[in-house]
Design brief:
The chain is an alpha+beta fold. Helix content is 17%, strand content 24%. It contains five helices and nine strands. The strands form four sheets. The chain has a three-stranded mixed sheet, with helices on one face. It has a two-stranded antiparallel sheet with strand order 2-3. Strands 4-5 form a two-stranded antiparallel ribbon. A hairpin with a 5-residue loop joins strand 4 and strand 5. It is globular and about 50 Å long. Keywords: 4Fe-4S, Iron, Iron-sulfur, Metal-binding.
Length: 189
């Protein structure tokens, strides 16, 4: 039975330190000036009534991935456990997938000349039973990863203890990355 990988970003625990982004860069040899993942800080309100939201920006591993649908060479594909990948050897750099991605999560890698994105560190960590690099370095445990169908997993427990939101859920892409919305600070919604 295939695993159903999920990642949850708890905005209440995230401090915006960028350790996840640095770990990703190091683990995956991400070239300078581009990123597979980043935490963006959004400040709302007027001093002293401020609210800071920490928003993770990365591939959300859509179940119904528009990037996979538009790829003319099938370089963008999805594994049986739902992780979206790019085969650099068959990518022709047409950029259709970059345009199709509603999450702005794909980019041209200037070294490989192929499209690149977050992979959940699938081949270099997850297939070996390890968590993605970003999860292992988070000092506040704001990131949780695992098999959502495993009722003893931390990701299952976190999902059942919180009201999760999915980025751009209205698009129907069914992301595998969810977040626990920030409840700290003044609400301006």
């Amino acid at each position: 039975m295939s695993k159903k990988y999920r990642m949850i970003h708890d905005e209440n625990l995230c401090i915006g330190c960028q350790a996840c982004s640095v770990a990703c860069r190091s683990e995956n040899d991400v070239p300078d000036d581009i990123f597979r993942l980043q935490v963006r800080v959004e400040t709302k309100g007027t001093f002293p009534n401020l609210k800071m939201d920490m928003r993770r920006q990365s591939c959300v591993m859509c179940e119904d991935a528009p990037c996979v649908e538009v790829c003319p060479t099938k370089a963008s594909f999805q594994t049986s456990d739902g992780v979206v990948h790019i085969d650099e050897s068959t990518c022709v750099s047409c950029k259709y997938c970059i345009v199709a991605c509603p999450y702005n999560a794909r980019f041209m890698n200037p070294v490989t000349k192929a499209v690149d994105k977050c992979t959940f560190c699938y081949s270099n960590r997850v297939k070996k039973g390890l968590d993605p690099a970003c999860v292992t370095v988070c000092p506040t445990d704001a990131l949780v990863f695992g098999d959502i169908s495993d009722t003893s997993s931390e990701v299952y427990k976190k999902a059942n203890e919180n009201n999760l939101l999915y980025p751009k859920a209205h698009l129907g892409t069914k992301p595998k990355v969810a977040f626990v919305p920030n409840k700290r600070g003044v609400s301006y919604e």
